[in-house]
């Protein structure tokens, strides 16, 4: 029984015998260590040895093998071509288009850089660490996407400029869904979090019409350069809030002056910036994410502040002490979904024409 099951397992887990060792069960310690690095299936050996009879028979995903006459992939060209032929079988046309392009560029990148096995393993370990660093309040992958310029590029492509519309920006890694509701004039920051700032403006369409009822999410650093979720004892939101524009499109709230802050240095992305010799500070900014029915969702960053030194004005705006505050005036101009869609389709068409020449 044992021998038969092991034979079956050998057949099902062929990758065991393709990495330079015919029998991993008889491997020396050194050889086993090699397996542990090369083959993630090494864990299966322990599972087999521990409780073979508890293992359910492995089954395929039900998709029949491809009826393709593919050449043996013994050259880099055949490896790429074979995979592209397999991807021709992809049922969803968009999946097929995106994955074929991804494979073309990935294989081209590997070829052009002559990536070594060690470098490739370093990259895989780096991505593994990026994933392991993510939690419900920490998004290391968004940070990675940001520093590669990928977030900005995706945003720029998906939100092409529309005349008169507010410029779009990236969401960043610190957005959370649970912002508390605040009313006009309320503060999103608790007392002592930083220098007072009042934020006000209108939400408008590109023809200047006020947009009432727009949902505005806003979040920022405190005076120490941290977003709330970065604190170890983080329990409830601070320096973030959700409000709605009034009938005249107006919105206004109290906050604190955001400060320049570093990209978190205690993870793989921070280490990568050091390795690349790249500066890790971001200029001070306030985040916005605005939604209104019929309009394109907008993410934006703002930094332009005015100094106000007027005690009466400070009291009038709800600040409990002092005679000065910063004022940030920001009119948010939303583009309609139709305007955005037309601009995106124009851009996509131009790119497709360029791509047809390139590929
Ligand atoms: Fe930010």
From TrEMBL:
Residues 172-299 form the Intradiol ring-cleavage dioxygenases domain. Pfam families: Dioxygenase_C (PF00775), Dioxygenase_N (PF04444). Residues 92-161 form the Catechol dioxygenase N-terminal domain. One of its GO terms (biological process) is catechol-containing compound metabolic process. Keywords: Dioxygenase, Iron, Metal-binding, Oxidoreductase. SUPFAM superfamilies: Aromatic compound dioxygenase. GO terms for molecular function: catechol 1,2-dioxygenase activity; ferric iron binding. InterPro entries: Catechol_dOase_N, Intradiol_dOase_C, Intradiol_dOase_core, Intradiol_RC_Dioxygenase. Its cofactor is Fe(3+). Belongs to the intradiol ring-cleavage dioxygenase family. This is Hydroxyquinol 1,2-dioxygenase. It comes from Grifola frondosa.
